[in-house]
Design brief:
Blueprint: E1 8-15, E2 20-26, H1 28-41, H2 53-62, H3 75-78, E3 104-106, E4 134-136, E5 161-163, E6 169-171, H4 174-183, E7 192-199, H5 201-213, H6 217-221, H7 229-242
Antiparallel strand pairs: 1-2, 1-7, 2-5, 3-4, 5-6
């Protein structure tokens, strides 16, 4: 999924009685996108983060290694050096011109010219005349598997994650779900409604912007899906009219 028409989905849990959004359930692809916001912004915790970015950062910090792909490490997100090399497998890339795999090239004239480029049309600065068309072989750091044999993204599949309105992300479990319902003082599960919403390019850009500015990121993007008192009133009127 690397184009603007790609769609992921989030499952919102809504308290219809209190008319408020509680939290969302997300699969691997959505969580990969959220975590890679950190590499897109190239921000570090020590330099300060606004909005809900600090919660994303701490979610990665607190995530157990057992949920992280074996070919990845947290520093890729927590201390990003280059966004290009780490987001190639993120759904619907925000940078559509980023290649799925980076290649590196050296001077076509001499093996002793030590400059490297990712553009084969670049001119070697050592000799000043030959292009950098000699393809080089990338060697992964010790302990990291080759990208070709690794599963894409950052977190593991077969796990559902809870995403809070302020972008706190954690693996979902029955206990964590019950704890959240108690936190929101939900006494009757019958008032809960699940709402599946799209996460495509348009929503992704809105979410990215809101993550800088807001502590209620998901609500700001999906506000129209949360029932308002007016909409609930109209529903009740239709029900009474039909009966």
């Amino acid at each position: 999924m690397t184009n603007s028409d790609s769609k992921l989905s989030l499952k919102l849990l809504i308290d219809t009685k209190a008319r408020k959004f509680l939290f969302a359930e997300a699969e691997k692809d959505c969580v990969d996108f959220l975590f890679h916001i950190l590499t897109l912004t190239k921000l570090l915790k020590e330099k300060g983060m606004s909005g809900s970015l600090i919660n994303l950062y701490e979610s990665v910090e607190n995530l157990k290694d057992s949920y992280v792909q074996s070919n990845q490490c947290k520093d890729i997100l927590l201390k990003p050096k280059s966004s290009v090399g780490t987001i190639s497998s993120v759904p619907f890339l925000l940078l559509n011109d980023v290649p799925s795999k980076r290649n590196f090239y050296g001077c076509s004239y001499s093996l002793h010219h030590a400059k490297v480029s990712d553009d084969p049309s670049a001119v070697c600065p050592d000799c000043g005349r030959c292009t950098m068309t000699r393809r080089l072989t990338y060697v992964a750091p010790r302990g990291v598997k080759e990208a070709a044999t690794a599963t894409g993204g950052f977190v593991k599949e077969m796990v559902t994650y809870i995403v809070m309105d302020d972008l706190v992300v954690k693996p979902m479990s029955a206990i964590s779900s019950i704890a959240l319902l108690n936190k929101f003082n939900v006494k009757d599960v019958g008032v809960l409604e699940e709402k599946v919403v799209n996460l495509g390019m348009e929503e992704a850009l809105m979410l990215l912007k809101a993550s800088f500015e807001s502590k209620t990121v998901l609500k700001s993007v999906y506000m129209s899906t949360v029932p308002t008192s007016a909409s609930m009133s109209r529903v009740k009127q239709r029900i009474s009219y039909n009966t």
